[in-house]
Specification:
By secondary structure, the protein is mostly beta strands. The chain has strands at residues 2-7, 10-13, 18-26, 33-39, 46-51, 58-60, 68-73, 78-83, 92-99, 107-108, 112-117. It contains no helices and eleven strands.
Length: 118
């Protein structure tokens, strides 16, 4: 089992940047593929980005491609999401998730709020 704790959320103006972190504890972090999801107000949770166990492969939701970068540091048991050129529609609670199988997630963090003002 792995425990995930997100941090780094906050309020930022449109065009600004934030970096989210997800600290993992428990079983070996490098055993897991990782992902970021978000849930905008009154909407369903949606995929944002994912990265494989090695950090060698990543994919993104089309609307964040080129603005967001997912990365991981297996030595520090930490997942990151660098978010640049933020837009009001990026406002959401952001969650990190871990899974043994790529594209399938077994463990979730509690979320961190990101609010982008226009």
């Amino acid at each position: 089992q792995v425990r995930l704790v997100e941090s780094g959320g906050g309020l930022v103006q449109a065009g600004g940047s934030l970096r989210l972190s997800c600290a993992a504890s428990g079983r070996t972090f490098s055993s897991y593929h990782m992902g970021w999801f978000r849930q905008p107000p009154e909407k369903e949770r949606e995929f944002v980005a994912a990265i494989d166990w090695s950090g060698g492969s990543a994919r993104y939701k089309a609307s964040v491609q080129g603005r967001f970068t997912i990365s991981r540091d297996n030595a520090k048991n930490t997942l990151y999401l660098q978010m640049n050129s933020l837009k009001p529609e990026d406002t959401a609670v952001y969650y990190c998730a871990a899974g043994v199988k790529l594209g399938s997630y077994d463990y979730w963090g509690q979320g961190t709020q990101v609010a982008v003002s226009s």
